[in-house]
Specification:
The chain is α/β, with parallel strands linked by helices. It contains 9 helices and 17 strands. It has 2 domains: about 260 residues, Spore Coat Polysaccharide Biosynthesis Protein SpsA, Chain A; about 70 residues, no CATH class. Strands 5-9-6-8-10 form a 5-stranded mixed beta barrel. Strand 6 and strand 7 form a beta hairpin. The longest helix is centred in the middle third of the chain and has 17 residues. The radius of gyration is 21 Å and the shape is globular. The two termini are about 25 Å apart.
């Protein structure tokens, strides 16, 4: 999934070049390039599909020249992840019937890529053998309020008995477990409880399933979506024509709802594979503190030389190379680009879109 509005990392990101097209982590590779490189040892280029929109498609094609043009799926409108995944499912099912589909975000960071591929292989095996939807759940390292959580009832042992999930030694990394409930982004107190009770994992937003299983879930749980998907499917070649008035009209009938709300929270058989491979969704500028080494003032700098006096714990990024000097400034985000200088407190970094 490579849409996005380019808001959370403005002014570095724009509608034309949102976060996944930025070289935020690696000076030579964008986040979407890193994502494709990460799965390439498992999945050949002809089986990698990119779901995006007409505005961002040119940059995606330039960034990923090995991906066939026919594998770039253009959504006529942004209608959230349920529509995006449903639309992609019918297109891919038309090319590779009854296959297993892996849904990944194009802008996540994963440090242990071999560990990621190992977990993904396990998820694919489970999806092939069970009529289940599989997700990857991140073992939490802190009471994070910016992530959703997965409540896990128990892990299944070799005797098909269930044992309680406990924090630390009780978590069986890499072994499938039943998801009991999806939990929305919690308060700090509730997040602390989730991490302490050992029965919750971070929701990574990665999903693995057989396409017929997902389409049947749409039929039962999001019937209006399913009806629209079937009408789109009946268009034949026109179902991928971004200029088709009929396709646009049908697509605009989708309710704007996430796959989590529409399907995952209601589906009867969801398994999670607990993982700890150094994951971050890099959801806002403060997330970069988990990626880059700070200086002696606990400040992170990228693309510039910064001078700090009585200043600490800042995030300073420049694409112009302009030197930035700070006096008496703490816990701020400063981003310098040729067209904009953005300054905000870290606690307001999630609200940058208000500036737009």
């Amino acid at each position: 999934m490579a849409g996005g509005s380019g808001e959370r990392f403005w002014p570095l990101s724009t509608k034309e070049r949102p976060k996944q097209l930025l070289k935020l982590i690696d000076s030579n590779r964008s986040l979407i390039r890193m994502t494709v490189d990460r799965v390439s040892p498992l999945i050949p280029a002809e089986r990698i599909f990119i779901a995006t929109n007409a505005i961002q498609a040119p940059a995606v094609k330039e960034e990923l020249p090995e991906i066939p043009l026919s594998n770039i799926i253009l959504e006529p409108a942004f209608k959230d992840t349920a529509a995006a995944i449903g639309y992609s499912s019918i297109i891919i099912n038309d090319i590779y019937p009854n296959s297993v589909m892996v849904v990944l975000a194009s802008d996540h960071l994963i440090k242990d890529e071999q560990g990621f591929r190992s977990a993904l292989s396990t998820a694919i095996e489970v999806a092939e053998s069970d009529n289940a939807i599989i997700t990857l759940g991140i073992k939490p390292t802190s009471p994070e309020t910016g992530y959703g959580y997965l409540q896990v009832r128990a892990f299944e042992d070799d005797d098909n008995d269930f044992t309680d999930l406990r924090i630390g030694s009780g978590i069986r990394i890499g072994e499938p477990a039943k998801v009991e409930a999806f939990r929305e982004k919690p308060t700090h107190l509730l997040a602390y409880k989730y991490v302490s009770d050992g029965k919750h994992l971070w929701n990574s937003g990665m999903f693995i399933f057989k396409i017929p299983i997902m389409l049947d879930a749409f039929r039962r749980l999001l019937p209006n979506h399913y009806s629209t998907l079937m009408k789109i499917s009946s268009l034949g070649g026109e179902m991928r024509d971004i200029h088709s008035a009929t396709l646009k009209e049908l697509f605009n009938t989708f309710e704007k709802i996430s796959i989590d709300f529409g399907i995952m929270e209601k589906f009867e058989k969801i398994f999670v594979i607990p993982v700890e491979f150094g994951w971050s969704d890099i959801g806002s500028y403060p997330a970069l503190e988990d990626v880059f080494e700070p200086n002696k003032n606990a400040t992170i700098t990228n693309g510039t030389e910064a001078k700090e006096v009585n200043s600490a714990r800042n995030i300073i990024i420049s694409t112009t190379g302009k030197k930035i000097s700070l006096l008496g400034v703490e816990d701020m985000v400063i981003v310098d680009t040729p067209n904009n200088i953005m300054i905000c407190s870290k606690k307001e970094a999630q609200n940058i879109k208000k500036l737009l």
